[in-house]
Design brief:
The protein has about 200 residues and is an alpha/beta fold. The protein contains 7 helices and 7 strands, in the order ααβαβαβαβαβαββ. It has a 7-stranded mixed beta sheet with strand order 3-2-1-4-5-7-6, sandwiched between helices. The chain starts with a helix and ends in a 10-residue tail after the last strand.
């Protein structure tokens, strides 16, 4: 128990340091709860998931649960603009399926291609859409839609519903949820890319 508390304290310290240095790019000052993690990942079809992408992984709150569920030949790419988080994840997650990239979610298509994939099955984001610099949120939403395979989904958790405005032009179906057991309680969104959708369609 003492070791677990020490690890949690160290993780929170890294997370908080990253928040202080880049507050507009981090959605919270503490990691998401296990209840939020479970709810967000519930709709994922893990059997068919070859590539899972995450924006703003922080200290890896979602990374480990994703890797536990991900098939043996799958891959998890996480993208963050904060070198503190990327360095921490590269040092603490030793899994050949895991790839931590220092970069912007706007460049997700190039990042996915650089890792040998054409499309992602799911993209998860905890980025604070309401506080991102002007133009960044709509660019991320558009790039995410393009990089997803038909039938894939954009999974977003936020404290506000601002992200829905950026998702709506691209995703005809957006499921919504709410998780009380989180600090703070958060809104959950799953934007689904239509089956059979042709490249370039929104």
């Amino acid at each position: 128990m003492r070791d677990r508390l020490a690890l949690y304290g160290a993780q929170c310290s890294v997370f908080f340091r990253g928040f202080l240095e880049h507050p507009r790019m981090v959605g919270s000052i503490i990691p998401s709860s296990r209840f939020t993690v479970r709810r967000m990942l519930e709709p994922v079809n893990w059997r068919e998931t070859k590539l899972f992408v995450e924006y703003g992984p922080g200290i890896g709150t979602f990374c480990r649960p994703v890797l536990e569920r991900l098939r043996g030949d799958g891959a998890l790419i996480v993208i963050d603009t904060n070198p503190i988080y990327i360095d921490y994840l590269r040092k603490t997650i030793r899994d050949p399926r895991f790839h931590a990239v220092l970069g912007s979610a706007e460049d997700v298509e190039q990042i996915v291609a650089d890792h040998g994939f054409e499309k992602a099955d799911y993209v998860l984001s905890g980025l604070p859409f309401s506080t991102l610099p002007a133009g960044v949120a709509p660019a991320i939403a558009a790039a995410t839609h393009r990089v997803l395979r038909p039938g894939g989904a954009f999974l977003v958790y936020q404290f506000t519903a601002a992200c829905r405005d950026f998702m709506a032009p691209h995703f005809a179906r957006i499921d919504q949820g709410f998780e009380w057991l989180n600090i703070l309680p958060c809104k959950l969104f799953w934007g689904w890319k239509a089956e059979g959708e042709q490249p370039g369609q929104n």
